[in-house]
Specification:
CATH superfamily of the largest domain in chain B: MetI-like
Number of domains of chain A: 2
CATH architecture of the largest domain in chain A: Orthogonal Bundle
CATH topology of the largest domain in chain A: MetI-like fold
Oligomer: heterodimer
Strand content of chain A: under 5%
CATH architecture of the largest domain in chain B: Orthogonal Bundle
CATH topology of the largest domain in chain B: MetI-like fold
CATH class of the largest domain in chain A: Mainly Alpha
Largest sheet of chain A: none
Helix content of chain A: over 70%
Structural class of chain B: mainly alpha
Number of strands of chain B: 2
Shape of chain A: globular
Radius of gyration of chain B: 25 Å
Chain lengths: 276, 299
């Protein structure tokens, strides 16, 4: 067993204090979302004297929360599942095929990792318009496929190498078609990568702002939560009580996701970062 | 098909399967990234207001204006570089220091690691807004409680201070991400090397600089790469924290591109700026990765 020295106890104490200090701004958001407006203006640091839940019901209603929550959920779900599907298939096939064409295709497919979003976003809006992908969460989700596919494909491509080729051959000999062999035998074995890909893309799509701003801001019905929150803050610039309740409502889904899958999230983010 | 020899038929099947597996990804990537990127490169040589279909070819005019006449763009360029440099240095030093402390044998290190990661799960738009609240209402209360003039400075309104505010908020948001990369790196350092150096009488600092640091160089490469490119692409946090102000003092290149295209409708000119941003990130990243990779060692 590990033993803890007095020095390590002091380190723990100091780091805990640093962590509390670090998260203090978020703590302030939480306590102020329960206060009345006058309580906030008199002292931000004090605890609320009573819990004002109207802040939340107001923010919930004015932000049109349920609608925008569902929009975000739809865009994220469509985006993430598309990324997983197209990139696992391509990553697998490209990893198994060792021809020159396959290599060229691989290069073409991972090249976007070197292209920053801001360098093509202007024309992306034009393409999206032509393809009728703007103005709906569904279209937004579809646009995410290509944006997320390169990194995911790269991760799958690497992971497939550790799955023995014999498994493919066995499945094919047993009469499975190539699609069935992949989805029933290989894909389940790639589960650790799939988890990482889901985590990375979910966090990104759920929190993304610029692409939704570019393709959705024209249609009020289709906004995502981040966009709705941004508009909401514009309306309630100094009504901090409403605004902080809005902040809390907006970050709540991500926090719940994080708290329930914390281990996978941290692992997944590291995997995605280190792979590039 | 019937006239095919078995060998040809097999090759044909193989090609079909290959296409079936790879074309969906190719289509998605072409639509969302590569075609728009090529269109942007093309548009950068045109005059285009985004509304008309017509794009007038004007050769290098956009680039000429960009390099010779556009002071705002260069100001944004300068601010972006300063912000990037600051955040690369600060975030990597802080994350590395914290990672070393968290990797030692202490209680509750998982909880601590998780705590520092929390700001990273919140979107930057919200982060910017939270800090607007802290800098205004929050700092007023801090001042009342402490009496320190520090809290009464105009952290978002003063041209000289706002750099530090933006830097601090970006570091606060992303620290947890770099922290977990460094912790993962530290966990790969072999225990026996550390123990061997202890037996040889190396002190803590020597051990860190001579053993640990060279061995986690690949984590440093990765972290610096991400902080560099995230810094050069900064948009969301600026959009909600300062919206580029006061004046234009915190406008980044990404924000400048956004405004050029979608606010003042100069799409052609905006794409020229975006091509420059692409080249800048590409060159700096390649340079950085080369430089750092050359210092990596294998165990």
């Amino acid at each position: 067993m590990k033993k803890y020295t007095p020095a390590s106890t002091i380190t723990t104490l100091v780091l805990s204090l640093v962590a509390i200090f670090y998260l203090y701004p978020l703590f302030l958001v939480v306590i102020n979302s329960f206060k009345t407006f006058s309580e906030i203006t008199s002292n931000v640091l004090a605890l609320p004297t009573s819990l004002v839940l109207e802040n939340f019901s107001n923010a919930f209603r004015i932000m049109n929360y349920p609608q925008y929550f569902l929009n975000t959920l739809l865009a994220t779900a469509v985006g993430v599942s598309g990324v997983v599907l197209v990139s696992s298939m391509a990553g697998y096939k490209l990893s198994r095929t060792k021809t020159r064409y396959s290599f060229v295709m691989f290069m073409v497919l991972i090249a976007p990792m070197m292209i920053p979003f801001h360098s093509f976003m202007i024309s992306l809006v034009k393409v999206a318009k032509e393809l009728h992908l703007i103005g709906s969460p569904l279209g937004l989700g579809v646009l995410y496929w290509g944006l997320g596919a390169s990194l995911a494909l790269f991760m799958y491509h690497g992971a497939v190498k550790s799955v023995p080729q014999e498994l493919d051959d066995c499945a094919l000999i047993d009469g499975a078609g190539p699609l069935r062999a992949f989805f029933q035998i290989i894909f389940p074995l790639l589960q650790p990568v799939t988890v990482s890909v889901i985590v990375i893309n979910t966090m990104w799509m759920w929190n993304d702002f610029l692409l939704p701003l570019l393709v959705l801001s024209g249609s009020k019905k289709s906004l995502t939560l981040q966009l709705a929150a941004y508009n909401f803050f514009g309306l309630y610039k100094v009504d901090w009580n409403f605004a902080m309740a809005g902040v809390l409502l907006t970050i709540l889904p991500a926090v719940i996701f994080y708290l329930s899958l914390q281990r996978y999230i941290i692992k997944g983010m590291v995997a995605g970062a280190v792979k590039t | 098909m019937e006239s095919m020899t078995p060998l040809k038929r097999k090759q044909w099947d193989r090609a079909l399967t290959f296409a079936l597996f790879t074309l969906p990804a190719l289509a998605a990537i072409l639509i969302s990234v590569e075609i728009p990127f090529l269109m942007s490169v093309f548009s950068s040589f045109t005059k285009w207001n985004g509304l008309d279909k017509a794009q007038t070819f004007i050769g290098l005019e956009n680039y000429k204006e960009l390099f010779l006449d556009d002071l705002d763009m260069w100001k944004a360029f300068g601010f972006t570089l300063r912000l990037t440099l600051g955040s690369v240095i600060v975030v990597n030093l802080c994350a590395l220091l914290l990672a070393v402390l968290l990797d030692s044998d202490i209680r509750g290190k998982n909880a601590l690691r998780a705590a520092f990661y929390v700001p990273n799960i919140v979107s930057l738009i919200i982060i910017g807004y939270i800090w607007r609240f802290i800098f205004s209402a929050g700092f007023e209360s801090f001042f009342q409680a402490s009496g320190l003039d520090f809290f009464m400075l105009s952290w978002l309104g003063d041209v000289n201070l706002v750099y530090f505010s933006v830097l601090m908020v970006s570091v606060w948001h992303s620290l947890g991400f770099y922290l977990v990369i460094y912790i993962a790196g530290l966990q790969t350092v072999p225990r026996d090397l550390i123990e061997a150096s202890m037996i040889d009488g190396a002190g803590r600092l020597v051990r860190f600089f001579r053993i640990t640091l060279p061995l986690i160089m690949s984590s440093i490469t990765v972290s610096v790469f991400h902080s560099l490119s995230n810094g050069l692409k900064a948009f969301d946090v600026i959009f909600s924290l300062t919206n580029g102000g006061p004046g234009n003092s915190t406008t980044t290149i990404a924000l400048d591109i956004y405004r050029t295209a979608f606010v003042i409708n100069r799409f052609g000119y905006g794409t020229a700026k975006s091509v420059v941003l692409f080249l800048m990130i590409l060159i700096l990243s390649i340079f950085q990765v080369r430089l750092f990779k050359s210092r990596e060692v294998e165990v």
